[in-house]
Amino acid sequence: MHKFLFQITVFIYFVSTVGFLVHIITLRKDAERIATVVLSVGFGFHTAAVLMRWFVGGHPPLVNLHDSLSFLAWAMVGSFLLFQWRCKLKSLGAFVIPFAMIIMTASSFQSKEILPLPPVLKSIWLPIHAIICLFADAVFALAFCIAIMYLLQERQIKKKRLGAVFQRLPSLETLDAMNERCLTVGFPLLTLGIVTGSIWAEKAWGSYWSWDPKETWSLITWFIYAALFHQRLTVGWRGRKAAIMTIIGFAVLVFTFLGVSLLLSGAHSYATWLK
What is the DSSP letter of 116? Predict the structure, then answer.
């Protein structure tokens, strides 16, 4: 049943993606409204799929690549819907939802088999740590999309050719403020994710920090976002610098999430978890 719900979700997200793209191409307000409603329905199905998989497996669906990608997409869509409800950035969906759709597509190609948890993962810290980290990743994904929008808009303005892109994107001030808002949410979540991971490591392996590849790259990611957070607060970094730093931080975060887990051996490797 959870596989069927997942497939329905992928289809609905695809329809919503088309709707958001139609909106940004044609500026039809009804396309954006319909796409948002369709997306909300898809989010409901996605939530049901995650909960059903949790019920069938008897543990949080967060430990393999299929589950992690699916949950990341779920967190992205949920964060976007909340963000959209509060901030009304109508063009944001055309950037965020195709990204979430790509993640869901990648998830659909991974093994959906539910395997028993290794003893080390049978802990209350699994859902706490993993959910916090994935929500941090989701918020930073939104910040990444907003940073791309900022650079596109800035390029239009610098060229003094205020064409179609300029009309479709919010002002630079609005985009920069939204980027900062994502940072103020995502950075504390990332910090809390690292702290809960350290607590879990101490209980599982007797050490708060072992310089596992995932731990090392998580710390590198944290330093990048900490630097951005510090520069915004103390130096007043705004605009292009902050947007570029956001993109760099997200690139490192993606490597930490996927590259380290797939390419480097360690306690956080998906292959290691599933042995």
Answer: P
pTM, to two decimals: 0.89
98-133: buried (b, 16+ CB within 10 Å) or exposed (e) per residue?
A: bbbbebbebbbeeebebeebeeebeeebbebbbbbb
Angle CA 85–172–38, to nearest 5: 30
Q: Are residues 107 and 123 in the same domain?
A: no
Sign of CA dihedral 108, 109, 112, 118: negative
Same domain, yes or no: 69 and 2: yes
Whether residue 142 sits in one domain with residue 226: yes
Residue where one domain finishes, among candidates 48, 82, 116: 116
> What pLDDT is attached to residue 267?
54
Mean pLDDT in each 10-residue stretch from start to end of the chain (275 residues)?
88 95 87 93 96 88 90 95 84 93 93 80 87 95 94 81 68 90 94 92 76 85 92 79 93 89 60 40
Domain count, the chain: 2
170 and 105 within one domain: no
Domain final residue, candidates 116, 150, 176: 116
